[in-house]
Amino acid sequence: MCGIVGYIGEKDAKNILYNGLTKLEYKGYDSSGIALIDDNKNLIIKKESGKLTQIKKYIEDTNIISNIGIGHTRWATHGKPTQINSHPHTNCRKTIALVHNGIIENYLELKEELIKKDHKIISETDSEIIVHLISEYYTGNLYGAVQKIIQYLKGTFAIAVISESEPDKIIIAKKGTSMLIGIGENENIFGSDIPPILEHTKNIIVMDDYEIGVIEKNKVTITDLEGNILNKVVENIDLTIEMAEKSGFKHFMLKEIHEQPRVVEDVLRGKIENGKIKFDNFNITKEELRKIEQINIIACGTSYHAGLVGKFIIEEILKLPVIVEIASEFRYKTPILSEKNLVIVISQSGETSDTLGALRVAKQSGAKVIGMVNVIGSTIAKEAYGTIYTNAGPEIGVASTKAFLSQLTMMYLFMLYLGDNLNLIDNKYKEYIIKNLEKIPEKISTILNKSDEILNIAKQLKNTKNIMYIARHINYPVALEGSLKLKETSYIHSEAYPAGELRHGPVALIEENVPALAIALKNSKTYDKMLSNIQEIKARDGKIIVLASEDDENIDSIANMSLKIEPIDEIFSPLLTVIPLQILAYYISDEKGLDVDNPRNLSKSVTVE
Ligand code: F6R
Asked: Spelled out in words, what is the top-level CATH class assigned to the domain 450-591?
């Protein structure tokens, strides 16, 4: 949930940490802080609640010279977002500083013991306990103290620790949440994600659970808990710094919406070989796959919506049953799974706590579990039996857009993969699907080029208090996604319903101030039904915005406003219908002057339950 960055080298650490934190703010942003060791071996801490502006001001005003430091952005879990609760935390003598991402489940127990030993715990956080514990075991060797205390920590953690007694090293360790180390020349930088590292180096070590790193200016040593030195692979990450920054767009969300033609191309790239789908890390043999009788998809939020579209695709085309479940519900149910189930957990971040919990439950029940994730080296990617990477690149905007589209696109490839291996699809239809998928990037670009029309609609809707989204069949999950995008970025209350459900209650909400957005594509098999629903809303004075196909000549005489996409076979339509809904949510939020990329109360990855 939080973001960590650390630097050691020859440059001005405070600026590097601040820059790194700006690239991590999306991970959590209710407070932030840095710890530096200056030339006189003094530990200096600056931390504040709120946005990074305070840290920026401090950095501009101070003349401290330091080449080593750690930084943190926080999204509160234990304790309010106050200055005292923000990181870095220190021991009583203020000689050791620590930043932490994750949750220490047994912190109350540890706290009691530490208090008995006269430690003064000043914050409400679970994190502060760790630094006191390190101090308790510190006998002149920071690495040794960290190595010692890890056994006492229950829960998840990525930690970075510095001590003024050892001003030439940073000790890091992790379990259950990510930590990456960038290897530079006469400098090393690490972080909980790639963006802060990329501008310094592309050579990255991905740490595994229960590893400890000693980060020095010219050396990185990774050991296991017993102290054995590990030979870690240094990967060359093929991402440019621009990919992680805004590229001239006003917000990350807009940039990421505009990246979607490229994202679809990237998802398709290298996956289709001689008409067959190829997944590198699937790890399930054809024989094992043939025993599968049911697919279960588990995810949260937007990723859950991608799963719902996946269900339509797989059931429509392969006639293979699919159950889609919300991870936070699934993990506490009695799982009815066996080796006959193939479980797909979908997660952009690969760190969502409930999805990870669901993955573990599913694994225990004997089912084969595949992670469909975006973030390389994430916990879900590591724990799943096999992984399908969705290749959307770093997604910084808190509201997911391009990651959703990459998940949707991957669902078609996944369906084809199953179809091929289980002989459930004929070659001609497969070719038809691949051809259509290859045309999607151009069709998305056409929609993006008409963004101004959507902006006009956004201007008319920005003061609305409630909006109803309706759709049927494969576009119902898109209505759910459009509605989620709107409420999270614009704080407008909206609900999405399968249009057939209107008469069963929700139509009571309709009146002239409650517009409805209907997805009604002319070639859809439920088009006529959608038109009757639209008429019902009109009869109750509700304004109607229709997301229609360009060849629907009559729609403008029925709708108050319309958004248009190119005509497309309904089975592929979610890949296009979601785009105007994302743009609409973006523009409404921007028109209202809201913080589009960092909506209130939200965090990019939800690593707590
Ligand atoms: C909404 C959004 C969230 C995430 C959800 C799951 O725009 O981004 O609903 O989809 O928190 O996150 P991941 O996919 O990282 O597991």
From this structure: alpha beta
